[in-house]
Amino acid sequence: MRALILLGLVGFAAQLVDGSLGMAYGVTSTTLLLAIGTNAAAASATVHLAEIGTTLASGISHWRFGNVDWKVVAKIGIPGAVGAFAGATFLSSLSTELGAPIMSIILLSLGVYILIRFTAFGLPRGNLGKPLRKRFLAPLGLLAGFVDATGGGGWGPVGTPAILASGRLEPRKVIGSIDASEFLIALAASAGFLIGIGSENIDFGWVGVLLLGGIIAAPIAAWLVRHIPPRILGSAVGGVIVLTNVRTLLRSDWIDANSTVQTIAYITIAVLWAAAITYSVRAYRRDKAAEALEAQSERREATPA
Q1: Domain count, the chain
Q2: How far apart are CA 23 and CA 34, in angstroms?
Q3: For residue 180, which of 47, 12, 18 has the smallest C-alpha distance?
Q4: pTM recorded for the entire structure
Q5: CA 32 to CA 46: how far, in whole Å?
Q6: Distance between CA 83 and CA 263 in Å, rounded?
Q7: Predicted confidence (pLDDT) per residue in 223-280, tens digit
Q8: For residue 100, what are the domain limits?
Q9: 123-157 burial string, b = 16+ CB within 10 Å, else e?
């Protein structure tokens, strides 16, 4: 019962982050499932089956708040589904001993990317309003879908920053469109896993609990995307993912680090993580203060003498 409650809370928290940031539901949930000993393919399959419901709820919520560009959804979602099916088939063919470390490396890489991206740069805002081309979105979707299925998450961490970096779509619509298109990726990946490993290797009770937590969080996240600072949230989530997957790798047969090395690694990561969050908070406050001063200056210029 305690494990199910924990999974429900993880599903809630992961969807709250994903719906607000456009990433990290799969990465966060899969990281936890690996940490408690679930095999790599089963962990990714469990998360993707839950995501069929959570992404549908999230997409509808974002659509109701006007956060979705359906042209972007179509251009990136269909190639993404092809990549996700291929990734699920690939991961299903790997042994458990090989699959877990490989997935942890992918998750760790995504966690480092999220941590650095949001801590150092925040959300880019340039070229707003320019069209997003199919020749950019289709390969991006194919790659993001493959990474998502093999890593148990990655659709958001790959897709969201890439579109944000283009500066052609406002952040809330990037997040809403990525979340809405993820429904197609979840369907395709789930089909690939069911064919590859069969339903007997999946705990549908876990799927249901993750799904329930995510569905509850989806409308809250779609509303929060307009109000919470993504820079701070990105730094916080990135640190969790890095710390957890470093732990998995250090305890794997590949490394098998002793307790002293593990302790030093955890302390180092914790210090860097705290520094990243502190920097993000200060940067956010600095940017808000600059925006307030700019707005005040514009009001003064607009006021007749």
Answers
A1: 1
A2: 19
A3: 18
A4: 0.63
A5: 12
A6: 38
A7: 665 666 777 777 877 787 788 778 878 877 778 889 999 999 999 999 999 999 999 9
A8: 2-302
A9: beeeeeeeebeeebbbebbbbbbbbbbbbbbbbbb
